[in-house]
């Protein structure tokens, strides 16, 4: 005996037939349901758009405002579902229980991928391992979360591609969140100097390149650090500082690298030469 | 009483009295008497100069502006006895290698055994305190406080004839099509000023006027007076108080940040830092009335201060 046939038998036993339900399903009921669904879809889109516009106008509160986008969507669709189902079905407690069983069976057999994605979405909204606006790496994809739907999450990569990741990846993949809801984000900038170059001067130059950047954010909780490491062929000077807006991550790294390299050249700080047999391919 | 709005140049203003500029004025006087090293930070045009003049009189010291091109003389002056130094934000430039002179001066200050009072732009101070820990060098530091609306009203009335102030017209539409365009087409937008007045109407136009002046100037008396002069005419209303508007990208906002922290900046240094678009961006700021020129120097105007503060804070530029 299968779970499906058990659920059907339970439905019959509870008089869960069209005749047994509280309201008649006719054309106007279907039309009403469609109107509510369309209204919910348009309403959710408009609210999400309004929140996004408000968020973009206030860079310091962008992520906080965008955090509400998926929550608002869930509320809108939940209200729509309530408006459609409750008057139509007018269920008793026993019928509601039976319907739950039927829906559960249907989910178990036919829609498990979809439902695991939806449950992933609900967990995303409640536990918030990441939010709209965060920079994350998930399923090997790095970028800014631009939308969290019930079924999937959209991530915009630095190359301006949009990657759609199923929300059930939450249960399987590790997620790296670079800013965890904050606009500030730590950025690492590496520059290389020759093994015999003046390490202290190069570190001072890189530090000043970091602190003078237009994108930098420095506070007691967001310090600037510069470290050196010996590599086989050169010294690696690594600078770490925060940007005030994580969208400036790449611009910051580029700005710091460009000005630090120019200063190295002006001060005769040698940078490593390419190996004689270097092959870019 | 009417003010002649046709006058090109408003009458010069006298700064506020020193005791009104600091909420801890007594502590400031005590620090002066104790021969300590003191830092005073304030917004441009907020009255920092008046406080430093008072300090110079109290100490019987010379008030100087340090010449960044002569570091040896700077060290000698700091080591030579009580001294009052203004515009210390000129001791650094925000570029690689731009902090050497500042570090020399900070070393000289930490060795000083007599009173040295230094004046700093508050944005430069906040930045340097984070990246160079300048606050560690001084025994005492003070911030010039913001004026309340009532204090600003008294300050303006002492220095200007205030014309008749009318309430804003509540019949105005909350939907405006004046400012916003999309691909050349005017699009309606909410006028939050009118909306605000319709939801919370203010019965007293004069109170509303000076509250708005205080909000725009952030309690900065020098800026408030300039904003007042810009709007002043018969029948003026709170919504007539405006600061220059300019739409800039992040590079333009960074230029504003440099000007806000420097107050008076060398054009060549700005160009080096901003890049090839410097001339065009500065032209836009000049036309908007945010900057003015004095030889090779670029000066942030008093009415340009609120614009620079708003834009750089919104962009979160340190």
**End-to-end Cα distance of chain A:** 62 Å
- The whole-angstrom Rg of chain B is 21 Å
Which class do the helix and strand fractions of chain A yield? Answer: alpha+beta
Number of strands of chain B: 12
How do the strands line up in the largest sheet of chain B?
2-3-4-1-5
Silhouette of chain B: globular
Key features of this structure:
A: alpha+beta; Alpha-Beta Plaits; 3 domains; B: 318 residues; alpha/beta; Rossmann fold; Arc Repressor Mutant, subunit A; 3-stranded antiparallel sheet; disordered N terminus
Write up this protein.
Chain A is of the alpha+beta class. Chain A has three domains: about 5-125, no CATH class; about 135-175, Roll (SH3 type barrels), CATH 2.30.30; about 185-265, Alpha-Beta Plaits, CATH 3.30.70. In chain A, about 50% of the residues lie in helices and about 20% in strands. Chain A is built from nine helices and nine strands. Chain A has a five-stranded antiparallel beta sheet. In chain A, strands 6, 7, 8 and 9 form a four-stranded antiparallel beta sheet that branches. In chain A, β1 and β2 (about 140-150) form a beta hairpin. The termini of chain A are far apart. In chain A, about 25% of the residues are buried. The model of chain A has no long low-confidence stretch (mean pLDDT about 80). Mean pLDDT of chain B is about 85; it is low at about 1-5. With about 325 residues, chain B is α/β, with parallel strands linked by helices. Chain B starts with 17 loop residues before the first helix and ends with a helix. Chain B has 14 helices and twelve strands. In chain B, the strands form four sheets. Chain B has a five-stranded parallel beta sheet with strand order 2-3-4-1-5. A three-stranded antiparallel beta sheet of chain B has the order 10-12-11. A two-stranded antiparallel sheet of chain B has the order 6-9. Chain B folds into three domains: about 20-145, 3-Layer(aba) Sandwich (Rossmann fold), CATH 3.40.50; about 150-240, no CATH class; about 250-315, Winged helix-like DNA-binding domain superfamily/Winged helix DNA-binding domain (Arc Repressor Mutant, subunit A), CATH 1.10.10. Chain B has helices at about 20, 25-35, 50-60, 70-80, 100-110, 120-130, 150-160, 190-200, 205-215, 220-230, 250-260, 265-275, 280-285, 305-315, and strands spanning about 35-40, 60-65, 85, 115-120, 140-145, 175, 180, 185, 190, 265, 290-295, 295-300. Helices cover about 45% and strands about 15% of the residues of chain B. Chains A and B meet through α8, β7 and α9 of A and α11 of B.
């Amino acid at each position: 005996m299968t779970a499906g046939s058990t659920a059907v038998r339970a439905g019959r036993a509870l008089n869960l037939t069209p005749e047994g339900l509280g309201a008649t399903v006719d054309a106007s009921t279907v039309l009403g349901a469609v109107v509510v669904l369309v209204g919910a879809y348009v309403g959710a889109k408009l609210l999400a758009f309004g929140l996004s516009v408000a968020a973009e106008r206030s860079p310091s509160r962008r992520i906080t405002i965008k955090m509400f986008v998926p929550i608002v969507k869930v509320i809108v669709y939940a209200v729509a579902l309530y408006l459609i189902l409750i008057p139509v079905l007018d269920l008793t407690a026993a019928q509601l229980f039976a319907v739950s069983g039927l829906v559960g069976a249907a989910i178990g057999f036919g829609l498990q991928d979809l439902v695991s994605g939806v449950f992933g979405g609900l967990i995303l909204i409640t536990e918030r391992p990441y939010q709209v606006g965060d920079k994350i790496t998930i399923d090997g994809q790095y970028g800014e979360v631009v939308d969290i739907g019930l079924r999937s999450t959209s991530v915009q990569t630095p190359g301006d591609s949009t990657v759609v990741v199923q929300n059930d990846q939450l249960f399987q993949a590790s997620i790296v969140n670079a800013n965890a809801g904050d606009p500030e984000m730590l950025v690492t900038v590496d520059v290389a100097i020759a093994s015999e170059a003046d390490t202290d001067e190069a570190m001072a130059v890189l530090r000043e390149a970091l602190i003078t950047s237009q994108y930098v954010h420095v506070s007691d909780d967001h310090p600037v650090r510069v470290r050196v490491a010996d590599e086989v062929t050169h010294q690696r000077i690594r600078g770490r500082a925060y940007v005030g807006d994580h969208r400036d991550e790449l611009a910051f790294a580029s700005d710091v690298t460009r000005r630090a390299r120019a200063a190295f050249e002006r001060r005769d700080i040698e940078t490593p030469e390419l190996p004689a047999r270097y092959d870019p391919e | 009483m009417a003010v002649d709005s046709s006058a090109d140049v408003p009458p010069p203003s006298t700064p506020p009295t020193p005791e009104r500029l600091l909420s801890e004025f007594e502590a400031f006087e005590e620090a002066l008497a104790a021969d300590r090293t003191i830092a005073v930070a304030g917004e441009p045009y907020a009255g920092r100069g008046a406080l430093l003049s008072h300090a110079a009189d109290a100490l019987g010291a010379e008030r100087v502006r340090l010449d960044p091109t002569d570091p040896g003389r700077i060290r000698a002056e700091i080591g030579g006895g009580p001294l009052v130094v203004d515009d210390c934000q000129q001791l650094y430039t925000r570029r690689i290698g731009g902090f050497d002179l500042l570090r020399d001066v900070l070393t000289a200050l930490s060795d000083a055994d007599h009173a040295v009072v230094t004046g700093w732009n508050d944005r430069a101070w906040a930045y340097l305190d984070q990246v160079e820990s300048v606050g560690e060098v001084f025994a005492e530091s003070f911030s010039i406080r913001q004026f309340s609306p009532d204090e600003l009203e008294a300050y303006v009335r002492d220095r200007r004839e205030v014309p008749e102030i009318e309430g804003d017209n509540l019949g105005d539409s909350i939907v405006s099509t004046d400012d916003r365009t999309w691909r050349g087409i005017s699009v309606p937008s909410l006028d939050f000023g009118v909306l605000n007045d319709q939801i919370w109407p203010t019965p007293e136009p004069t109170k509303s006027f000076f509250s708005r002046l205080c909000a725009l100037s952030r309690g900065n008396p020098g800026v408030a007076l300039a904003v007042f002069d810009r709007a002043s005419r018969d029948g003026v209303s709170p919504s007539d108080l405006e600061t220059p508007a300019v739409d800039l990208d992040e590079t333009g906002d960074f230029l504003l940040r440099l000007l806000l922290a420097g107050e008076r900046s060398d054009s060549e240094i700005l160009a080096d830092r901003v890049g090839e678009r410097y001339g065009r961006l500065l032209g836009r700021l000049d036309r908007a009335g945010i900057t003015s020129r004095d030889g090779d120097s670029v000066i942030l105007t008093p009415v340009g201060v609120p614009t620079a503060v708003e834009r750089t804070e919104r962009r979160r530029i340190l």
